[in-house]
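SUBJECT: protein chain
CONTENTS: sequence, structure tokens:
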Amino acid sequence: MATPSPELMPLWAGLAVSGSVLIATVAAVVTYCHSRQQARRDQRLRARLSRVNEQLSKLYGPLYGNRLANHKAYAQALGTHSTLDSYLNDALQTWQMDRHTGSMMLSRWRTFLFYIMYPLDLKAEEIIRDNIHLCEGHFPQGFADFLFHTNYLRIVLSHWQLRKDGTLDTELEYAQEDDFYRENNGGFAFHYPIFDQLDVFVKDTYESLLLHQQGLLKALKEGDSGEVGTVLVSPRGAEQATEVTEVYPIYVPVGPAKGGKGATNGHGSVRKDIEDRDALTMEPDDAPEPYEVPVEPSRKSPDRDAVKKGKMEDKLQELRQELQSVVYVPNQ
């Protein structure tokens, strides 16, 4: 092997030093850019997590609990009857044979509505009005319908017989048949779907935000790579892409987390009743690159090789049959 001449030794030494400096500089720049990108990503995730926490703690969490309490009181008031119509018809028939007993049945319903359900409705109205800014995109139609109903209830209750101290007269012997009509005891027939739609909408949105929260927490903790898509939430049976549909973000990891054995949906153990829901349906994402489809916890994610071989539609069809409550649309 030829030995460099003494005259070239300083040149070779300078080149070696310059090369080392260049490599170190490039490594430092790459590390800095990566750290800055990671910091920006974490900042965006924390900002999103802060809003989700606020939505859960101030709007959908309290509203979900409120609706559960209202539903429980409604079932307790009706007793063995499945609907208010059935209860009021039974009360009317009883009243026609025994005025006192029939009047007591009607007083029972009005007591539950006046002292329990109506105050819960007013509290729900307050929660909605005070936290409209936490809705995504627009004011949900389900909320608007519910506020209309509470205003109508004010009119209904204003015609009820009250004592001088403002309490309900539960010992009143009702003398008119129309006292037992539904519109004088809670609203017209078209009001009642409002409750079902609101309950389903609030439950779907609350659980979807929990999924989003779990995904964000996992992303911040483990540094997995993922995308923020959206979940479309609408009342059961509502048509998609109508004004009643509400859009909420959801964080979906698309690769294994650090230290993980495989890609997961990042949603923990939330939402175990997905297969029992039929409000929404699963749709394939429209992104130019395939994303991991969020799936029920403990179920396997779609095989990547099968996706690459053009079998994505078959796997999505299986997911549609299992997941009937989430519409995932990745952001463009």
